[in-house]
């Protein structure tokens, strides 16, 4: 079994690969948080301040319909924030993103 990422099979463009990879991770986090809350699509739409068809697109994993900015906004509406830690001396992992519960 290969350790190759699925997006590597569809793109030789490292920018596209990384953007799709990040979108996939964000949608998985969003879906996990929404499921933990036990929300229906209608409740999710109201809480995220988007239309129900938009939530349906999210639930179906239609990543092409969402920007990273939009998914980040949804995370904030769910009560979370993304913290970025940058260490230019760490060549292996100079940027680390952490999802944290927002202080309200």
Number of strands: 2
- Radius of gyration from the CA trace? 15 Å
**Which structural class should the secondary elements be placed in?**
alpha+beta
Largest sheet, if any?
2 strands, antiparallel
Query: How do the strands of the widest beta sheet line up side by side?
Result: 1-2
Q: Please give the alpha-carbon distance between the first and last residues.
A: 45 Å
Work out the strand percent.
Answer: 5-15%
Number of helices: 4
By CATH reckoning, the class would read: Mainly Alpha
Shape: flat
Arithmetic mean pLDDT: 88
Taken together, the total number of domains comes to: 1
The CATH homologous superfamily corresponds to: lambda repressor-like DNA-binding domains
**Succession of helices and strands:** HHHHEE
Poorly predicted residue ranges: none
State the CATH architecture: Orthogonal Bundle
Give the CATH topology.
Answer: 434 Repressor (Amino-terminal Domain)
| Helix proportion | 40-55%
């Amino acid at each position: 079994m290969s350790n190759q990422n699925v997006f590597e099979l569809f793109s030789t463009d490292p920018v596209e690969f990384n953007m799709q990879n990040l979108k996939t991770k964000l949608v998985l986090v969003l879906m996990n948080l929404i499921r933990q809350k036990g929300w229906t699509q209608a409740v999710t739409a109201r809480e995220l301040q988007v239309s129900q068809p938009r939530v349906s697109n999210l639930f179906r994993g239609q990543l092409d319909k969402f920007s990273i900015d939009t998914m980040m906004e949804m995370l904030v509406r769910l009560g979370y924030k993304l913290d970025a830690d940058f260490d230019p001396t760490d060549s292996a992992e100079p940027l680390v993103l952490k999802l944290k519960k927002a202080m309200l």
